[in-house]
Amino acid sequence: MQSRLVAGPVGWVDATNKKSATDAGRTQEGELEMIRAVDGQDGKNGAAVATGASAKKSPESLRVRVLRQDSPGRESYWECHVIPYEPNMNVISVLQKIAAGSTTDDGRKVAPVAWDCNCLEEVCGSCTMLVNGRTRMACTALVDRLVEEQPEEIVLEPMSKFPVVRDLMVDRRRVFHSLQRVKAWVPIDGSYDQGPGPRISPEEQEDAYPLATCISCGCCMEACPQFTKVEVERLAGESEEAFEARRKEAFDKNFLGAHAISQAMLFNSHPTGKMIADERMEALTDRGGIQMCGNAQNCVAVCPKSIPLTRSIARAGRAATLWAIRRFFDR
């Protein structure tokens, strides 16, 4: 039978097939309904779209609460600032705007907030602080995400495990003292050319590289429950040498931190660095060593470089056990 084509609602259709014409009409009606919904011609759908758009609207201003301290040993106090919102800001941008205005939310003129920063790209490790109660790098703490987490305000505090110098600046010398304790370097004798070093396989390089990305930011130490604050005050009439010796003694009695343990494992696996592996193991098993780790695993959760710190700690614990047994039978 010859088909007869007629003009239908969605083009030419076969008039001999009534079902096709009916389905085509239904398809046309469905398409029109979808177009109405997308274009917002349906009142209810248009209202829902408008409501969703207004809910995601960016704020016009930001309220920032900063915990300030004028100098070491002084009482801390809260101070509130309101700054205009701009997209794609980080916490450093917020602090720069606060410093530019130096005016609180009630109109008082104040000294600019002090903080540490350098590279602004999560390399130097100097801008660590507590942002909304969590230890983070200020340069990579994005305001848009912070507002999603806590739309009321942004709260900035100095790290709690280090003595405050001023405002958000802290004394982080203990971070580097811990690295000195474990001798986190490859020892060399002089600066003259000693020829090519030992070869390292690609597998060893892959294993070592994540540990080598540590920037000594202090995030792991701030989050660790075993790493407690040590603040030594200078006594009246005490010499500089005596004060430094007493502070060093206080540092040595307390936990050295996950970053130092990880760096000890990094250099003990290095072909040249392992020459003084026994000295590093002695530091790791001394006071404040690996035995103080409670395996809370907070360190690996907050590390901005995603370094496998708990893996390093597990390896250090095993190495320390074997080293202690070998040392016992070698006496």
Side by side, the strands of the main sheet go 4-3-7-5-6
Name of the CATH first level of the largest domain: Mainly Alpha
**What amount of the residues lies in strands?**
5-15%
Weakly predicted, low-confidence segments: 1-28, 34-55
Number of structurally distinct domains: 3
Would you count the extended β strands for me?
9
Give the second-level CATH assignment, the architecture of the largest domain: Orthogonal Bundle
* Overall pLDDT score: 86
Order of helices and strands: EEHHEEHEEHEEEHHHHHHHH
Structural class category: alpha+beta
Radius of gyration, in Å, reads: 31 Å
Overall description:
This protein is α+β, with helices and mostly antiparallel strands and 331 residues long. The chain has 3 domains: 1-32, no CATH class; 61-169, Ubiquitin-like (UB roll); 172-189 and 200-329, Alpha-helical ferredoxin (Fumarate Reductase Iron-sulfur Protein, Chain B, domain 2, Orthogonal Bundle), CATH 1.10.1060. It has 12 helices and 9 strands. It has a 5-stranded mixed sheet with strand order 4-3-7-5-6. The chain has a two-stranded antiparallel sheet with strand order 1-2. Strands 8-9 form a two-stranded antiparallel sheet. The longest helix has 22 residues, at 18-39. The radius of gyration is 31 Å and the shape is globular.
